[in-house]
Amino acid sequence: MLVYKSIHFYLSFISSFLTLTRLPSLQTPPYTMLRKSSDQLTGNDRFEGFCIDIIKEISRQHGFNYSIEISPDGAYGSKNPITQEWNGIVRELIDHRADLGIVDFTITYEREEAVDFTMPFMNLGEW
């Protein structure tokens, strides 16, 4: 799922050509994985998986470049109940160190207050 800081960004993302400087993700098979290769891979070629296929196709259709990086703290994003500070990909988006996050996020009420989500690419359980 794509996660972004602002719906305004998402609308401009869809309607214009952008170069994304940073797109954080996590290694969560089968969504994002390091590609196994005997060659030294660099950049986006290091990754494969369902989320990678999604962003590759979206970028092809809308004409933008992106750079996938693993989130430095390895977290999706949760809010510390004491400090009220976020970590993970959510923090990267809030601090504008990332333009989009692509990962198998669980949409929670708390996360929805901090960032915006696209439509999920899968649903678990009954609603």
UniProtKB/TrEMBL annotation:
Gene3D superfamilies: Periplasmic binding protein-like II (3.40.190.10)
Top-level taxon: Eukaryota
Record InterPro entries: Glu/Gly-bd, Ionotropic_Glu_rcpt
Keywords noted in UniProt: Glycoprotein, Ion channel, Ion transport, Ligand-gated ion channel, Membrane, Receptor, Transmembrane, Transmembrane helix, Transport
Record's keyword annotation contains RNA-binding: no
Domain Ionotropic glutamate receptor L-glutamate and glycine-binding: 30-95
Annotated GO MF terms: ligand-gated monoatomic ion channel activity
Localization, UniProt: Membrane
Coarse class of the protein's main subcellular location: membrane
Membrane topology: Multi-pass membrane protein
Pfam families, per database record: Lig_chan-Glu_bd (PF10613)
Protein name: Glutamate receptor ionotropic, kainate 1
Organism: Portunus trituberculatus
Gene that this polypeptide is encoded by: Grik1_5
